[in-house]
Amino acid sequence: MAPHTTPQPDDAPDAERDAFHPDLPDHDHGAGDADSKLPLHARLHHIRADALDGDTAQTGGMRRFAAISGSSVGSQRIWMGQTHVAAQTASSNHHHGESETAIHVVKGHPEFVFLDDSSGTPQEIRIRTSPGDYIFVPPFVPHREENPSPGEEAVVVIARSTQEAIVVNLPELYVLSDEPGEE
Fold first, then answer.
1. Which of 28, 61, 123, 147 could cross-link 91 (Cys pair, CB 3.0–4.6 Å)?
2. What are 133's strand-pairing partners?
């Protein structure tokens, strides 16, 4: 039995041909008349690497690019994108509000810095990473990213539990108190 296929116009670019769903148009950024007929939550979205959105919350020393967000695909509970940290650069101190943040190191050896107060005396902790490593940042935990490499940009993929990138820049690292309203 031959697989189901739908004829494609002869002038359709190869990128728009989908062997599994040839009857659906390319859904790059929700553009096009055919896309407007499908609700955002009734289809998959394809965000090409060259179409990431740099108009997102930023921290000094870093460049963030949104791929999956409420504005790009209508996500309601997740944000995902890339962060680039130039060689010999450190981000500003910051936290991500209520977002849980998962980080996957793609390129370079970025370092993640936070204060640990579990011994009663705040101590700066530095986590050194390599490509393939993962980092989890709990909500409201102040931290910064650093790239000590003299010549290689660090690139990480980030996923957050909110549909937009929450970035709260801070003047310094500090340990959050267990008491609400105290820092």
1. 61
2. none
